[in-house]
Amino acid sequence: MKKDKPHKKTQPLTRLEELEKENLYLKAENELLKKLEALTQAKEMLKKKR
Fold first, then answer.
1. CB within 8 Å of 13: residues ≥ 6 apart
2. Cα-trace Rg, the chain
3. Which of 18, 34, 40, 45 has its CA 20 to 30 A from that of 4?
4. DSSP codes joined into one string, 24-50
5. Which CA distances in Å does 45 have to 1, 32, 34, 35?
6. Contact at 8 Å (CB) between 21 and 29?
């Protein structure tokens, strides 16, 4: 049986750290959306070729 690790008391993020974290999240989201768009376009191209 696993023991839960005690939660570390972390200091609140600075404004810069919050912005960096948000920036990383938005970059990842943007990459995901680009891949989704590419898949959608590829699917449409296959439909047109049929």
1. 21
2. 20
3. 18
4. HHHHHHHHHHHHHHHHHHHHHHHHHH-
5. 52, 20, 16, 15
6. no
Q: Whole-prediction pTM value?
A: 0.68
Supply the DSSP symbol for 1.
-
In a 3-state reduction of DSSP, which class is residue 9?
A: coil
Tokens of 9: 């008391």
Phi, psi of 10, deg, nearest 5: -95, 150
Cα–Cα distance measured from residue 38 to residue 45, given in angstroms and rounded to the nearest whole number: 11
What sign results for the dihedral spanned by CA atoms 40, 44, 45, 47? positive
Torsion region of 33: left, alpha or beta (phi above 0 gives left; psi -120 to 50 gives alpha): alpha
